[in-house]
Amino acid sequence: MHDPWHCLCDYETLAAARTGSGVLDGLTFVIKDNIHVAGHRTGCGNPDWLRTHPKATATASCVARTLAAGASLVGKTQCDELFFSLEGENAHYGTPINPAAPERIPGGSSSGSAVAVAGGLADFAIGTDAGGSVRIPAALCGLWGLRPTHGRMPSDGVVGLAPSLGTTGWFARDPQLLARVGTALLDPDPSPFVPRRLLIAQDAMALAEPALREAIAPAIARIAALFTSVRQVQAAPEGIAHWLTALRTVQGFEAWQTHGEWITRERPVLGEVIRQRFDWAKSITADAVPPARAIRAEVSARFHALLGDDALMLLPTVAAPAPKRGTSGAALDAFRGPTLQLAAWAGSSGVPQMTMPAGSVDGAPVGLSIIAPRGADLALLDWVAREMVAD
């Protein structure tokens, strides 16, 4: 396949025809390079990982379900090295080109998946999200994306970073297709959900740059007009940074538990930023984890109390438009810090979060997110597919 966006893995040709017929008949998809397909290698964004691991012996359930629903797999996509980043810039393979803003980063770690859909190389894509790796690239590439309820998607055949945080998610160019993919991938919701209340998270809005808040205001107003009960809330009275610190502690500890043995044994060549992150992850002691997990449990209880069984919540997906390619230092940190705080909401609580295109800042897309109660994934997808029909 011709790849003008530099988003596909080129270490081998990967394609798989549909195995059945269903809601995805005739569609094509790509998968992130941490998802197994039997008989093929998985690279995880690092040449040494690719070299030291055999071909997969089984296909991930998320791929098998998609093929059975009638879609055809047409490739694997580049990702951030071992999924420990949100920029989409890989020291070994380069940076996929963001079709919506070519001079800016695409976001990661599911960068190639987002770019392939935004660039029209596939109808939809599957990625993974532990700290924002579906939601952030979706927003920066002008796409619809879903991080499902944690634990809702089968994790077999997927190489992860932090098991208690990560989940498979997906991208599409419109909400109707996003919902069709959900129908193929997810079992029925455990209980009915009908949104009757809308919450707007003011503390999350405060993290976004003023220009971004202005850009997403019309989308917020459009959604608010669908409800008779709309309320501004402070979801994190103690401060969102408190949530992120806990999430990063758990993420770092689990990242080293997941990949530390391989890193120690194989001594792979890692990009400098990724090496520094794993050095930090190695330093996290086990006694730091229980207090961090207790904070996550408090966040989950907070969301349950706010959302109940009938509310949606709105918040910005990212705090600013995508930085320029090659941005580093303080300029990159100014994007990363508040954006990671926004991503920590669903990561900490396990609730499903959908991001939708909601305008642009300086010509670059930005996103608005909708959060639903745990387990209401299909109901959220169905509601958005009905209500967010283009004018």
Could you please describe the fold and organization of this structure?
This protein has 391 residues and is α/β, with parallel strands linked by helices. It is built from twelve helices and ten strands. It has helices at residues 47-52, 61-68, 111-118, 135-140, 175-185, 202-205, 210-224, 240-266, 272-282, 289-307, 329-349, 377-387, and strands at residues 28-32, 72-77, 124-129, 144-147, 167-172, 197-201, 229-233, 311-316, 353-361, 364-371. β9 and β10 form a beta hairpin. The mean pLDDT is 96.
Number of helices: 12
The portion of residues assigned to helices is 25-40%
Biggest sheet character: 10 strands, mixed
For this structure, the quaternary state is single chain
Question: What is the string of SSEs from the N terminus onward?
Answer: EHHEHEHEEHEHHEHHHEHEEH
Going across the biggest sheet, name each strand in turn. Answer: 2-1-3-5-4-9-10-8-6-7
The number of strands is 10
How widely separated are the two ends?
34 Å
Low-confidence stretches: none
- Average pLDDT, rounded to a whole number, is 96
Quote the beta fraction.
15-25%
Q: What is the general shape?
A: globular
Structural class: alpha/beta
Radius of gyration equals 19 Å
